[in-house]
Every structure is written in C-alpha cells, then in structure tokens.
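As a warm-up, study this chain.
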Amino acid sequence: MYGWTGKLLRVNLTTKACTVESSEKYFKYIGGKGMANRIMYDEVPAGTDPVAVENKIVFAIGPNTGSNAPCSGRTDIATLSCFTENNAIVDAHMGGDTAVMMKGCGFDAVIIEGASETPCYIYVTDNAAEVRDASHIWGKGNRETTALITKETTAGVNVVSIGPAGENLVNLSCVITGIAHCGGAGLGKIFGSKKCKAIAFYGTQGMQVADPKKVMELNDYVMKDLIGSNNNHVIPTVMQSWSEYSNKSSRWTGHPGLTWGAAEGGPIDTGESAPGQPTLVGYRCQKAYKDHGAVAEQYTVKMTGCATCPIRCYGSVYIPQMEKTWGVVGAHANTCLGNRGSSIGTTFIKNVKDVETEGDGALMLSIYAAIKSDDLGLWDNYGELAATLGYVMADDHKILKQILTEEEYNALPWDRANNGDVNALDDFYAALINPNHNMYKLTQGAYYVAKTFPELMGDAYLNSKALGLWGVMGGKKHHSSETAAQVGLLTNVLYNRDGMCHTIVNITGSGLPYEIQRNIIEDIFGEGALDKPSNYTKMNESKAKFAKFGVMRQVLHDSFTLCNWVWPMTFSPRKERGYRGDLSVEAQYMAAITGEDWTEESLDHAVERDIQLHRAMTIMAYKTTDMRNTHDVVAEWVYNDEKAYTEGNTYLSRADWQDALTMFYNQFGWNENGAPTRATLEKFDLKDVADDLEALGLLG
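Now compare it with the structure written out below.
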C-alpha cells in the first residue's frame, strides 16, 4: 500500500484496550483533517459534551506524511470545541516530529476514546500500543513530562503531553510536543478530562511511495524553483546580489551580516541563499530576529523546526543570564505567537530592566513567558487570551477588580510586576490555571468569558477591535479582512475556532510588488480578485473564487499533510519564471506517492468533500440551517459603512458583506443561508450525511 498505511489504532482509556483496524474506508477523505472529521462524524454525535466520556480525540495524518516532501510533517487532531459556541467540531494542527513518528508506527489515525479513572499515558510502537500509569507524572510540566516518559520508554520517542493547565481543565489549554510545538483548540482540557497525560510515539517503519524517483524530482523542483521562506515569502528583506526586489515586511530575513550569534563554535553568517541553492534554504528564515528584533541575533543558536521542513521557522535561543537573574534556563525554541510570550508577559510585567545588553530585558521577559506558557500547556488562542487580559486590565484594572475578589486582587504581586520583576509572572500564571481563582474564568475563551460576565463584558467585548474576533461565536481572526479584504475574512468563517488559514496571507505578504501579485492572481481567478492593500473594492465573483481557493488549499494541506505556513506554491522567487509558482505540485505528489491517477480537479473534489462534511457537522452542532445569521456573523469592528472602500481603510460595509457571503456560498453549492443541499452532498458521495440532515430537519 502506497502513502497510507491502511491501519488505524483505537485506544480505549476506560478498558485500556488497544486494537488495530483498517483505515481504508476513509481514504476518499485524503487523510489528516478529512479523515479525522469523518471519524468524529461517525462516532461522536453532535451535541456531545466535550468533556463527556463519549467525546473522542482523533490524531490523523495523510499519504504525504513521511514522504520527505518539503514541509510535510504536520499532524491534524480533531475533537469537540470546549471554548467556542455550541461545542462544534474543531481541529488542532501541530508540527514537530509527531506525524512522521506516527507513520513510522504504522498508523494513519489514532482514536482515543473513553476515560481513565487514574492518570495514564499511551505508548505507541510499531503496530501496537499500551496504556501505562502516569500517576507519578500528573502535575508536572511538559518539559519534565517529556524527559520522564523518554526515560521510561525509548530514546528518540516523540511525546505529546499536557501540562497543569490541561489537568486543571482550562479551556484554553493545549498539547505540546518537542517542548514547544503546540496543538491548540482546547485539546489540553479534553486530554485532562480523560486523565490522559500524554501519548508517545516510537516507530521504526518506513513508508512506501509508488514512484520514488518522481517524488525526488518533485522535491528538487520545489526546492530549486518554487520555495521561498516562512509563509513562502519569495522576496528578501534586504537587497541581495541576485534579487530584483526587497521588502522589509518579508520573512526572508537571512542576509549577509546577520548571524546565528550564539552558534556552537562561533557566529554563523546567514549570507545569501539565492534561488536554485536548496542546501541554503534553511538560512532564509531568521524568526527570532524577525519576532524580537536585533537584540535576538546574539542569542540565536540556530533555526530549527518540524520534520521534513527546510524552512526552519523555529528560532532557537539561549540566554545564559536568565538562569542567574530569574532562575530559569534561558533555552527555548518557538515561532509566531508562541515565540512572543511577551503578549502575556507585558500584560502583567511593566518597566522590565535590561541586564547586560540594550533590549535584553524585554527579550528575556518574552522568552520567560513563552517557556512558562509552554510548560504549563496554556494556550493563547492566537492572541485572544492576552487580548482578554488587556481588555480587563484597561483603565486601571477597572473590569478585573470587579471579576476578582478584593482578597484575590490584593494577593497578586502588582508592585513587583510594576517594578519589572519577571518572576512575578509565576503568581499570575498560577492564578490563571487555578479553578478556585476567579482569574481562571478569563481562560474560558472569549465566547464563554462574555457569557460569564454579560454586563461587564458581553457584546462590547466580543465586538471590540482590540479583542479581534472574526465572529462573535468566539473564533479569533486569523489574517482576516485586513488581508485581501473580503477574501481574507471569508477564509475565517467556515471554522469553529480561528481559521488557521495562511493561504491568502502567504500571497499578500510575499514581498512582491502589488502589480506583480495582482497580475498572477487575476490570471488564475479573474479580474478584480486581489485589491490593493488598504484600497478595497466591493465584492465580485473573482474574489469569491479566490476565497474558496484559500480554504480549499488549507484543508488540503491539513489533510495531505503539508504546512499551510509555506504551501501552496502560488509564487516563486525566480525572476525568470515571472515569479509565478506552480499550483499543480500537490496533485503531482499525490499521484507519485499513491500510484493513483490524481489530478488537480480530482484532488479538489476530494478536498471539497471534506469541507462539505465539516459544514454539515457545524450545522448539526448549531441545530439550524441558517449559518448566515448564526455561525457566520462577523464582529462589528469589521464594518464602517462610511469609510468602507476608501483609500487608507480596511473596513467593509454590511450590505457588501452579505453579498460576499452569497457569492461564497454559491461557490460551494449551498443555499442562501449557507447550508449544503442534497444535490451538493450527493455530488460528493455524502448521501448518508444528506439523509441524516434531512432526518433532523437540517438539510439546505
């Protein structure tokens, strides 16, 4: 069997039984997200309480996982949401080594069901698994948990664990692998509710591909002609001898004179990494420098990242003075919001002082907060937790003082925090994850925070630009209307959490001049598909096609699997290609790996099946076909009818947004309120889903 292993593992935590079953009936869902969602549909009824024993956790990977295709080491994990409205289906998307090690164990999916009475962890090996006692690990952080499970099992094992936040059933808690790779979506709470501390994978099996030569040719083509840097930004920040353009906002930050200042053996210059030089691709992304500024250069040890990824977007830093100053070993690797722990740290800690170098105090605060968050397994929900804390602490803590008791408020180390004592963060984190402290209520996720405090927070909070939800059901915006106008916002509205969709921002943030971007995008999707930044036009059919593409590729990548932070290859860094990428590459990989006759069209059909299923599951959770006026309602900060479509603004108008939804729904064959019809579902071999919806009175 090529690509897929043909097997799934079922682990029942109640009985401790581990059984192996066939996964072949799920192949038409590709893998990953599609496979995990179908398993959840088949086995977990809509309306199930997320922490009930009947809820399940599904790890799933795809045929591309382990193929060594660039950036193919992603894992999809599906369960029911504990932090957004109606507890609908959600997926976490995690990097690290988990996906490749899980494929090495011989499984396309792992289903965790039931619940243990006492703490346990799951140890998965080649074609087998066992449930082990974790009483001695319960209560420990993710770093110590990883070390202990590694010692008890096998060197090189991949550990996916929860910290005390998950054990304490914090809604905004996550699983962590490789110390800092995060699987969000409230997974920590679901693991904690099942008394499951971790799942560990150690596999030694290889995978089979139908045409190894073709896979290697595709790898060579992607690495030499198509791939850029993080988010597939194809233009460097600094002009280089080979480049025609530069753009300071690009994530292609490596350049001559910028070093890994703390590299073993002395600084390493990142230099030039011109297109056509695949062995130098790993020097392009200097994420610690990008996130923290120039001060991070002297502390950067190297760049690291996920299995099979040449981009290396995780900035590994070592700051020795942190242990002496604050009692924490200052070694950490992370990226994006996880790298900027300062979002929570600076909410509490003010006036932090530099220790040895200008700016190192702010850097160390950020790293300290990131280490603490990851070790506790406290999830930021794409910045929502920090935004919520900032909201309640505005105006001299006006709202926070009404949420906490006087005793609770006064017991927190405000004086130390205001004088730059970073260790004071420990007390704030302890309060946030303590179920007996009112600070804990702020970690429920925005939707439930608003329900808990309707008068203090309520609609004003849910609709505030500072909070930045795309919609009041609780989903955080993920490159929304500020990214390609209606297109960016539309790529958020299908989800039951933040959209986690980078397809469009990879394009708008590529670094290329707007005119080049527009010409390439209009050639694919039609005239008017891509607006000039902050100079938007009204909705049109080309934008609807572009938005559908954004969602389709994100779901493809989470199913196949690939990293949507880098793929698709819409653009290329090569001037001689006219900076045009190649959107056929995923289908070429699928055919070469599986040996089946996959085309762009047939792959799109399979991906859309996954989207149709996901929409049906959301409708079942909401118990209504009116998605337009329930689920797909966006926050008020998006709108300004007077300033919309004027230069310098990113606002949308209410009437035009309704037109955008209509055009988007039409792209998927949904009715006027965004519900799939029987004809549409049957087109994608989902007759059973149509029958189920009809029986519930929920068919579009």
